[in-house]
Write a structure and sequence with these properties.
Layout (H helix, E strand, L loop, with lengths): L13 H5 L7 E6 L4 E6 H7 L1 H12 L4 E4 L4 H11 L12 H15 L2 H18 L5 H10 L5 H13 L16 H17 L5 H7 L28
Parallel strand pairs: 1-3
Antiparallel strand pairs: 1-2
Helix pairs in contact: 2-3, 4-5, 5-6, 5-7, 8-9
Bound molecules: zinc ion.
Organism: Saxophila tyrrhenica
Protein name: BTB domain-containing protein
């Protein structure tokens, strides 16, 4: 979706047809310092996002139509809207997927849209598995600082560094000012947990030695009554 335009396929979506009696369903979202303008269907985005649900209630009471997201990136919001309107994650830039998935996760996390956060996690795991790469230190820093504490994204970053990096440089770690202290502490704790598990017969060993792409589908997902678990959750992806 481009700024200044409504989703072209939105009018034919089941949700739109169901509530076609509402003519006043558009809201305006102004994103970033440049105030890139997006027009979206209120009921579609509010159904997905607790943030928008709350913001719309307040704004509607004040009879305003615009919601401002000054600190957000228009490209990330564009990616988010594509996902919300059923377009999947094709808007992700293949040149920098980790960065875009992490930004999308951070936005979805704040919006309270667990489906979008789960989709971003799946994207990171899939790309990592395909390309045999993990996010670099700068991306780990972004992931740690832009998502809530102990979030699935933070757990994934820690697991990548503990289980999937063949060679971790510990030179000059004392002077590392990129990786947050909380991240380094979590990595150390995880290594200690592995060391204590010791015995290969221990069931914990299997969990500790399984990489992200081999874990059950919902391992890094968040679900609740509003966002129920994936149907094939028990099977590896
Ligand atoms: Zn799931």
């Amino acid at each position: 979706m481009e700024p200044e335009s409504k989703q072209p396929d939105a009018a034919s979506s089941p949700a739109k047809r169901k509530r076609a009696e509402f003519e006043d369903d558009d809201i305006e979202v102004l994103v970033g310092t440049e105030q890139a303008r997006f027009v979206v269907h209120k009921h579609i985005i509010c159904e997905r996002s607790t943030f928008f649900h709350s913001a719309c209630s307040q704004r509607w009471m004040e009879e305003k139509r615009a919601i401002e997201l000054v600190d957000d990136d228009p490209n990330t919001f564009n990616t988010y809207l594509k996902l919300v309107y059923g377009g999947g994650l094709r808007a992700i830039d293949p040149q920098k997927p980790f960065l875009e998935y992490i930004r999308l996760y951070s936005m979805a996390d704040r919006f309270g849209d667990l489906d979008a956060a789960n989709a971003a996690i799946d994207g990171i795991i899939q790309f990592s598995d395909q390309e045999h790469q993990v996010p670099n230190r700068g991306l780990v820093r972004l992931a740690m600082l832009s998502s809530s504490a102990h979030s699935p994204l933070q757990r994934l970053m820690i697991d990548f560094y503990v289980r999937e990096i063949s060679e971790v440089s510990i030179d000059n770690l004392e002077e590392d000012n990129v990786l947050p202290k909380e991240f380094l502490a979590a990595v150390v704790k995880e290594f200690v947990r592995i060391a204590r598990a010791g015995n290969v017969a221990n069931g914990l060993w299997k969990e500790l030695s399984t990489c992200a792409s081999e874990k059950p589908k919902c391992y890094y997902h968040q679900h609740n009554d509003r966002f129920p678990a994936c149907e094939d959750a028990t099977r590896p992806k």
